[in-house]
Amino acid sequence: MTAPALTFDSLTMEFPGVRALDGVSFGVRGGSVHALMGENGAGKSTLLKILSGAYRPTAGALRLGGESKVFASTAEALAAGVAVIYQELHLVPEMTVAENLLLGRYPRRGLLLNRAALRAEATRLLQLVGEDISPDARLGRLPLAQRQMVEIAKALGRGAKIVAFDEPTSSLSAKETQRLFGIIRDLRDRGHAILYVTHRMDEVYETCDAATVLRDGRHVVTHESLAGVTRDALVKSMVGRELTNIYNYRPRAHAPDGLAVRGLAGPGLKAPVSFAVARGEILGFFGLVGAGRSELMRLLCGAVAPEAGEVRVHGALVAGGSPRAAIRDGLVFCPEDRKKEGIIGIRSVAENINLSARRSQLRAGVFLDHGWEKANAAAQIARLGVRCASADTLIGLLSGGNQQKAILARWLSEQVRVVVLDEPTRGIDIGAKSEIYALIHDLAAAGTSVVIVSSELPEVLGIADRVIVMREGLVAAEFPRATATPEAVLHAALPAAAA
Amino acid sequence: MSKPLAAPSTFARVWESAGMLLVLALLFLGCSLFVENFLTVTNLRGLALAVATIGMVACTMMFCLAAGDFDLSVGSVVAFAGVLGATVMNATGSVLAGALAALASGALIGLVNGVFVARLGINALITTLASMQIVRGLGFIVSDGRAVGIRTDAFFAFGNSALLGIPTPVWLTAGCFLLFGGLLNLTVFGRNALAIGGNKEAAHLAGVPVTRIKVVIFTLQGLVAAFAGLVLAARMTSGQPNTSQGLELEVISACVLGGVSLSGGVARIGAVIAGVLIMGLVQNAMNLLNIPPFYQYVARGCILLGAVMLDRLKQRI
């Protein structure tokens, strides 16, 4: 067995009130793909940020090729051959692919930019990832999957020997995911050390050679080989408890007159969409990326003004094109992109929770009720188990799962009738997922209509009473729970040519 | 590209809430000890009067910045409101008519700014840069480029009156601080403004009426700037089309000194008041020390840079 190319050496990272990492040590060998797993707040993101030079650890260091190091900046990390590919890509959408690839180290001829050399080098880098992308294309015009390839090529161009991926497949389609895996294997075969952060168990077994599990900032176990390591054993070490049925599905009584959508049309939809959700029912929407699910949800919740159609909640017509009107009628929306559209990162957890519901808690019709604000934030934090140092902590400092719980808390502070959740568990670990599923069931059991959009088939099948499949801007099929088999649902979601 | 949010240390939090007050206290102490004639009733009254205009306008600029915008037209509105108020008062002989005309025009200018920025989505820099020039021009047109002397005694008697030994304009500024501080901290409007500055899209999806709040903020900004212009005209006994050039930058400087984030989402009234007073105090001390005005510009710029550096530094500690 070769010596590790990268070793984490008793890394500890402390934030006020939280120890995000506590003496974590393990090694990643060259020529292997090493999975890094753990629940939300287990410390994976913190570890990556230390690796990329964004954070300096409170104690401990990294060891690269026998040398002990702490990166003071991302530039230092890059210079040492370490690249971290984040979910949010660090590219400039307005510039061309070639310009992005060589950003910061453009070839020059005297004082002028050497365009020919720029193009040639960019082409060479794109060949490394085997992707058919024009170096002259504007980056912003590329689909997300190709942008990710550009990011990988950019890292390779900087001589990265150690590449870390932070949930790279969370917004890729199945086909794109396979392409990415091909590239990752190719990198491994050329001797790169790869650290792969994911929540998806299938991916671990498909692409990874070794795995490390973190829990609550501590190192739990490192499997140098995954042979003989069962899925259950991995999950168990992540959550520290047995998870029997994470979806918690229980049949519920339904009552009519929940949400009724008739002939809703707008950007992203090829034909008007109609459907209804009973009170107490959970309706799942499945489809590939780009099938029009998120677009439909945005129309439904007033984020985008519909061109035609009507939405009724408990029989009452909801004014279109205004999230505010929808919320007043009890129709609330948790958007897909938590960071960009959900949280207000530089405000506190309490502020984020009380943002909407406070309008109905005013004193004299004008003044904030500080007592209510405090009490509601505390109650919701306790109810949903949001892990934060205090209600005054900036929400941007929390882990993804806890941010999502805080957004849910925002809506649970309201009198909700219909909850629309767009990818509510994206980038969230199994423990937090299971808590969110339980919450969704509680909501439905209390008579709320729930619409849940997900790209994870097991999730939709596990939680929904009924599944609507979308494909290329159209409703393709509808299945009651009894007949919603993975094969049938997936078949309906795939474009005709590919199926 | 978003930078990771670093967790604030205890020192940073203390600095955040009281840092500028501390700087103000130290400056005050230093000036009292080392600057001759600083700690006299006459001088302190003059100092307070000198920051009255900046103070009033800073109240609404704080809201503008908190919501992620800014307004460059305030200096022009101050001048225009003074000139228009004076002209209408002279024409009608009525203080009330003049004041109403000035306030209404200020609010209207703000409303137009707000509609352009919030509803039509035009960049705030461009919009208010344009209105800054338009309104300055209107001031010159109304006054024909000359100061408009006010013939109504009651008006400038009011501008130069005092209550309990404190000049009326200073009371009015204090009133603005109280009113807008309350608006920021005690009402949904204030919280919503901060939410918009923090993340406009998230605020919109959470049911915050983003467009309406932004329009209201700009309208208030115009109204308050016009009010400040009237008070200034009353003090000077005339409406002057040339006055308050560069006021917008002084006001934004004071807000930044007071820890208001230029990218929005963070604002504290106490710190803004401290920022306003620091600006006035430094100016006053330099006058007392007979530092020539040309050097004062340099010093003011350096102070602003210094404050921003301090702010940066605190994030590392």
How would a textbook summarize the main sheet of chain B?
2 strands, antiparallel
- At the first level of CATH, the class of chain B is Mainly Alpha
Instruction: Outline the low-pLDDT stretches of chain A.
Output: none
SS strand fraction of chain B: under 5%
Provide the structure class of chain B. mainly alpha
Give the number of domains of chain B.
1
Number of strands of chain A: 22
Walk me through this protein's architecture.
The complex is a heterodimer of chains A (499) and B (317). Chain A has 499 residues and is of the alpha/beta class. Chain A folds into 2 domains: 4-239, P-loop containing nucleotide triphosphate hydrolases (Rossmann fold); 255-493, Rossmann fold. Chain A is built from 17 helices and 22 strands. Chain A has a 6-stranded mixed β-sheet with strand order 6-9-10-3-11-12, with helices on both faces. A 6-stranded mixed β-sheet of chain A has the order 18-19-20-15-21-22, sandwiched between helices. Chain A has a 4-stranded antiparallel β-sheet with strand order 2-1-4-5, covered by helices on one side. In chain A, helix 6 (174-189) links the parallel strand 9 (162-166) and strand 10. Chain B has 317 residues and is mostly helical. Chain B has one domain: ABC transporter involved in vitamin B12 uptake, BtuC (Orthogonal Bundle). Helix content of chain B is 75%, strand content 3%. Chain B is built from 14 helices and 4 strands. In chain B, the strands form 2 sheets. Chain B has a two-stranded antiparallel sheet. Chain B has a two-stranded antiparallel ribbon with strand order 2-3. In chain B, a hairpin with a 2-residue loop joins strand 2 (162-163) and strand 3. In chain B, helix 3 packs across helix 12 (247-257), helix 4 runs antiparallel to helix 5 and helix 9 (188-198) crosses helix 11 (210-236). Mean pLDDT of chain B is 88; it is low at 1-6. Classes of the chains: A alpha/beta (499), B mainly alpha (317). Chain A binds chain B through residues 15-16, 18, 49, 54-55, 88, 90, 301, 303, 323-324, 326-328, 333, 335, 339-347, 351, 355-356, 358-359, 362, 366-368, 394, 396-397, 410, and chain B through 1-2, 4-10, 185-188, 191, 194-195, 198-199, 201-209, 261, 265-266.
